[in-house]
Structures are given as structure tokens and as C-alpha cells.
Amino acid sequence: MEKCPFSERFLQIIWNERLLCVRPVCVDGRPLRVVSTGLWNRAKGPDFRGAAVLLDEQLHRGDVEVHRYASDWFAHGHQNDPAYDSVVLHVVWEDDMAESSKIHGMATFELKNHLQPSWEQFLQSVEAAFYPHAREIQPGACALRWALTDDEHLRKILSDAGAARFSRHGRELLRRGGESGLEQSLYERIFEALGYSANREQFRALAQALPLSALAEYANDRNALTALIFGTAGLLPDPTTTEILPCFREWVKHAWN
Fold first, then answer.
1. Which residues of 209-225 are buried (b: 16+ CB within 10 A; e: fewer)?
2. d(Cα 33, Cα 95) in Å, to the nearest integer?
3. Are strands 87-94 and 107-110 parallel, antiparallel or unpaired?
4. Rounded distance between C-alpha atoms, residue 39 and residue 68, angstroms
5. Contact indicator for 25, 114 with CB cutoff of 8 Å
6. Could you report the per-residue pLDDT of 81-122, keeping only the tens digit for each?
7. Are 38 and 18 in contact (CB under 8 A)?
8. What is the per-residue pLDDT across 30-68, written as a single tens digit (0 to 9) for each?
9. How far is CA 162 from the centre of its chain?
10. By Cβ atoms counted within 10 A, which residue in 1, 53, 175, 181 is the most buried?
């Protein structure tokens, strides 16, 4: 048996990133489907809490323990620790245990023969010591439900939700169109989108302060439009009272005038 070239930490990252081949299979021959890798446990106990996996289409919910070798389970004394009683999957780089020594009631999954082709590229790009803790997050509350929903049903739900959202925005556009005209309303909606989530109201206020009708005569003059938008937004400094960097001085003076 050749020595495992990776640390246990890196194997945990591989599991957390789901860098597995398309059809992974456990040591006992059961197909494995990862519904949720679980929450990476930074304290004592199993490495991943609250995981959900399908073993031969049977759902198993519990914890996941990651080791370099299957025998590390006994080397670390987990067989005598009640904290590991809820482990449903033992993820290892290599299974070095005889069939007679398998842990009863727990599946073993061997990583080394079930990785994505891109995993070596990932190995070169990641520093295990600086792997971002933001990636060690718990899946959303609906993750398990949607992961177990068949594709056709999920496609219909997303399609219906998209149509409902489109309809709602359409009604809102018509309502605003009745107040300020359809073209102005659409113009304000475009500006809102340019503000993304953090500045939607500010961009809408800018579109209202600089209505579409005020821009009509400058439609073919990009410099004039830029000056109007920056000036109305309060982002155009007065070159007679403000120190301007030399590279911008001429443009700002022209735009201000």
C-alpha cells in the first residue's frame, strides 16, 4: 500500500467541495449520491455534522468522518467514543481494512479512485491552511428537499416562479407607467437595475431628477450625457474650487462647463 500523499485537512476540503466523479460507488458496491456534505465541524467529534447521502437510493442522514486510511477509525479510538455513533459514511483516501474488519452499519467511501479529473488542478490552486471558512457553511434549510426533487418537477417550479416574477414586474411597470408615462417608467426601471441591490433607490432618484425628456436633445452627444448624469448625481467636482488630478483636469473642466 502506497502512502497517502495528502493531509486529512486536504481530504476534508475535497469532500466539502464535492470533487467527486459522476457516479461514485462505496467500497461495498453501493452507488453514492451526496445530497448534503454536512456542516464542517471545527470542534471535537465527526468532521461533518448533519450530512445527507443516498446509498443505493436509500436516504441516510447523519455525520461524516474523514480519514487518510480506514484503519484510522480504530487508531483514533472512535469505536469507543459515543460522539461517533451517528456517523453514516466513512470517507477515506484508501481502504486498508479487510472485509472482516469493516465497521458495522457504516459505509466506507474511498476517495482516490472516485475524484473529478480537475481535482489535481484544484490541489495546485488551494492552500489548505488558508482555505476560506466562508466555504465551510451549512446548506440552506431547503437544500435537502430540493436535492431530492426530480428534475422535471423542479423545472416546473422554477418556470412557474420565473413567470410569476415576470408578471409582477410587468404589473409594476404598468402602474408606474400610468403615473409618469411608459417610457419614463421603463427608464427608471433600467436605472434601478444599474444600482443593483444596494443602490436601487438612489439610481431611481437620479432617473427622476434627470427625466428622459431632459436627455432627448443630447441623445447623440455622449460627453454631454455623461456630464449631465455625473453633475445631477453630485459626482462632478467644480474645477474652479477643487483640486483635480492632471489626467482628469481637462475632461472635468469641459464637462463642468
1. ebebeebeeeeeeeeee
2. 19
3. parallel
4. 20
5. yes
6. 999 999 999 999 999 987 756 777 789 999 998 998 877 777
7. no
8. 999 999 999 999 889 999 999 999 999 899 999 999 999
9. 20
10. 53
The residues with which 107 forms a beta bridge, in sequence order, are: 89
Give the integer Cα–Cα distance in Å for 162 and 170: 12
Under a CB-based contact definition with an 8 Å cutoff, are residues 90 and 107 in contact?
A: yes
| Measured CA distances, 169 to 155, 181, 191, 228 (Å) | 21, 16, 15, 29
Q: Which residue has the cell 477509525?
A: 73
The values of phi and psi at residue 57, to 5°, are 70, 10
Three-state DSSP at 9 gives helix
Report how far residue 231's alpha carbon sits from residue 80's, in angstroms, rounded to the nearest whole number. Answer: 72
CA angle 84, 89, 95 (to 5 degrees): 105
Rg (CA), the chain: 29
For the entire predicted model, the pTM comes to 0.57
AA letter at 131 = Y
To the nearest 10 degrees (0 to 180), the angle between helices 222-232 and 200-209 is: 120
Residues 6+ apart with CB under 8 A from 111: 11, 14, 15, 20, 91, 92, 93
The DSSP line for 206-236 is HHHHS-HHHHGGGTT-HHHHHHHHHHHTT-S
Phi, psi (degrees; rounded to nearest 5) at 123: -55, -40
Residue type at position 28: D
Q: Which three cell numbers stand for residue 54?
A: 443516498
